[in-house]
Write a sequence for this structure.
């Protein structure tokens, strides 16, 4: 058995079942679709964010003088920076829906529990203010939001399924009993929340946000939130695609880390603090690895439009426009790159090599005036996102990255194209020879049909 | 016939949907064809006669078949998917419903 056969065998025996389990897991599905639901929130403020941060002196002065700048920043703060509150709503909604209960009840209960668990008093100097800290609604609340968004709907479903509902006398109309059962579930939920909050307040953590951040978020982020981790994740993603499997199992598990990173950056940006460079590089890298779709085939596809072989030329022309919008399934399955030994090496190399180059460039020359508050839908051409986030400086880095990605594929693409061209030539020659033979035959037996007529 | 395609986000399959519509129109057939993310399959079950999965979500076929009940489910051939061969996928869907 060849190397690829062995590898594919291993993939289908070991990886596929695990990947299927993860992708089909209801909790993962709820987190994934919940995150998708919050995309309009993180992207909706983008036009105002771009306009209020245009680096033109006269414009900036005007914004400051009129107070428009402050309003623009507030818009950003209440959307992108407070993503946790939107995440708890969206995740609990999705999970309750998957569990088959009333999704809006699940979302309302979870949001209320999330807010209840938050510290409600903030000491500022001598006075104590009754307020919620925006950091708990943002980066500090991210993991709590996901946990609450799963646990509360789970309990809601469990209580409903086990008929832990209000028993009323038979004379009460069933509709009344039914409308009261969520109320009963809520009473139980909030009573439990009360004791949980009190219990945690007795520990050294004080509140659940501190506790989860110390016990879960800090260790997860210290392992996952580095440019090297993201290179590893995307290298595995490419490996999955090489076997033609959608890597949602990997990306959905990694998504909480990336969301935390981008919300932390947005908070730092809004507060005018210096950005966490390694986080900023991570955000740049996600965009770099998105370029042209999986495997970063953009350069190769453009080259492919002028390929020698019809096979690669026609497919590349079909795929080139979607490629600019980071969709390249036609390439993966059509070239095909999937299970094609020629493309195995470049597909495996493209992420680490480009990643290392981008890390090197950004550590040598810095991240420029990077604006992490500008987030775009994933189907946006990455060079446009790069330009909006970091101006000509980041655009230049992206052009270097595209060039490197293209160079990595170049020799392998040439090999594949030449091979296909030779096959086409051979096929055409064979066809021509066959045609000649038919013509020869026709000459020997002149126009039988004509004679019959 | 109502043909529903599904992949992870419903993005790249929506390209194939266009090609399939062209192909079935050229053959003078009146098929309704659309694409959804795998997540949304349960919401669309009452509308479709056959479900075709993108090859990248082929591992979820068994699970989809379970939710789909009697509705036939199959995975689109990678080559047909990559080359956006609308006619071939329409033919495959037709043969499933038979």
């Amino acid at each position: 058995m060849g190397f690829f056969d062995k590898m594919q065998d291993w993939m289908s025996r070991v990886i596929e079942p695990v990947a299927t389990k993860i992708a089909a897991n209801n909790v993962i599905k709820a987190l994934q679709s919940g995150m998708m639901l919050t995309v309009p929130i993180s992207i909706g403020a983008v036009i105002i964010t771009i306009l209020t941060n245009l680096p033109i002196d006269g414009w900036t002065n005007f914004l400051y003088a009129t107070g428009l700048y402050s309003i623009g920043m507030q818009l950003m703060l209440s959307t992108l920076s407070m993503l946790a509150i939107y995440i708890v709503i969206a995740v609990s909604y999705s999970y309750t829906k998957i569990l088959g209960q009333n999704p809006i009840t699940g979302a309302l209960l979870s949001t209320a529990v999330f807010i209840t668990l938050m510290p409600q008093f903030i000491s500022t100097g001598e006075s104590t203010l009754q307020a919620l800290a925006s950091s708990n609604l943002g980066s500090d609340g991210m993991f709590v939001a996901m946990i609450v968004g799963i646990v509360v709907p789970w309990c809601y479903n469990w209580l409903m399924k086990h008929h832990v509902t209000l028993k009323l006398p038979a004379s009460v109309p069933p509709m009344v009993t039914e409308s009261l059962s969520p109320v009963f579930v809520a009473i139980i939920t909030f009573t439990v929340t009360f004791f949980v909050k009190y219990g945690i307040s007795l520990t050294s953590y004080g509140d659940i946000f501190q506790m989860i951040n110390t016990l879960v978020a800090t260790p997860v982020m210290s392992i996952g939130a580095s440019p090297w981790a993201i290179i590893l994740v995307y290298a595995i993603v490419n490996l999955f695609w090489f076997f033609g499997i959608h890597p949602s199992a990997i990306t959905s598990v990694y998504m909480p880390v990336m969301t935390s990173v981008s919300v932390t950056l947005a908070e730092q940006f809004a507060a005018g603090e210096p950005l966490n460079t390694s986080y900023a590089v991570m955000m740049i890298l996600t965009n770099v690895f998105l370029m042209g779709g999986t495997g970063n085939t953009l350069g190769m596809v453009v080259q492919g439009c002028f390929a020698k072989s019809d096979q690669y030329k026609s497919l590349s022309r079909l795929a080139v426009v979607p490629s600019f919008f980071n969709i390249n399934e036609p390439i993966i399955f059509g070239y095909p790159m999937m299970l094609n030994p020629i493309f195995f090496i470049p597909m495996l190399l493209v992420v680490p090599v480009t990643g290392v180059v981008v890390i090197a460039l950004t550590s040598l020359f810095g991240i420029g005036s990077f604006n992490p508050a500008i987030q775009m839908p994933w189907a946006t051409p990455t060079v446009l996102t790069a330009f909006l986030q970091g101006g000509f400086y980041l655009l230049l880095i992206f052009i270097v990255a595209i060039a490197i990605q293209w160079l990595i594929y170049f020799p392998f693409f040439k090999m594949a194209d030449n091979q296909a061209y030779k096959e086409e030539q051979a096929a055409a020659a064979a066809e021509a020879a066959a045609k000649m033979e038919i013509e020869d035959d026709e000459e020997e037996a002149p126009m039988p049909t004509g004679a019959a007529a | 016939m109502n043909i529903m395609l599904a992949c992870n986000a419903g993005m790249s399959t929506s390209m194939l949907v266009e090609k399939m519509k062209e192909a079935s129109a050229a053959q003078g057939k009146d098929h309704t064809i659309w694409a959804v993310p795998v997540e949304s399959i349960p919401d669309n079950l009452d509308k479709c006669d056959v479900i075709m999965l993108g090859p990248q979500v082929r591992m979820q076929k068994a699970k989809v078949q379970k939710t789909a009940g009697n509705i036939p489910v199959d995975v689109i051939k990678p080559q047909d998917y990559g080359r956006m061969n609308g006619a071939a996928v329409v033919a495959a869907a037709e043969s499933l419903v038979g």
